[in-house]
Amino acid sequence: MKTLTCDLCDHTVSGETFEAWMENLKPHYMSAHADFMEQNAHGDMQKWMDDNRARFDAQDESFALLPFSIAFGAAFGVVAGVLIGSVTDTIAFSVALGVSFGAGIGIVASLVYKALHSKD
Ligand SMILES: [Zn+2]
């Protein structure tokens, strides 16, 4: 499964293959870029396909790690929350805070990972 942004905006679309990704992109294109579709209806769609296929092939799958990073960060946050909470006697508050921070750290970590491994 790969997740790529639309070539015209920041909308993200996922697909197992380039063909599946194209299918999933279509509804977004119809609604968000109807003008572009109209202007390019008689244009060079093959070039557009080739460009997007190259983009799809170049994309690594690290973005798919995001849910795992959040889960791992949240799990780490629970542990940290229990440890801090047992010392300060505010376990419920500390665990809630730990999960929030942990999930946040997980998101940031996966974004950093993605940025470091981006081939753009
Ligand atoms: Zn778009």
Architecture overview:
This protein has two domains: 2-59, no CATH class; 64-117, no CATH class. Helices cover 71% and strands 7% of the residues. The protein has helices at 18-32, 34-39, 45-58, 66-88, 91-117, and strands at residues 2-5, 12-15. Strands 1-2 form a two-stranded antiparallel sheet. The radius of gyration is 20 Å and the shape is elongated. Bound molecules: zinc ion (ZN).
Radius of gyration, whole Å? 20 Å
Helices and strands, in N-to-C order?
A: EEHHHHH
Helix content: over 70%
Largest sheet: 2 strands, antiparallel
Low-confidence stretches: none
Number of domains: 2
Which strands sit side by side, in order, in the main sheet?
1-2
- Cα shape: elongated
Task: Classify the secondary structure makeup into a structural class.
Answer: mainly alpha
Instruction: Average the pLDDT over all residues and give the rounded result.
Output: 84
The DSSP helix count reads: 5
Q: What is the CA–CA distance across the termini?
A: 19 Å
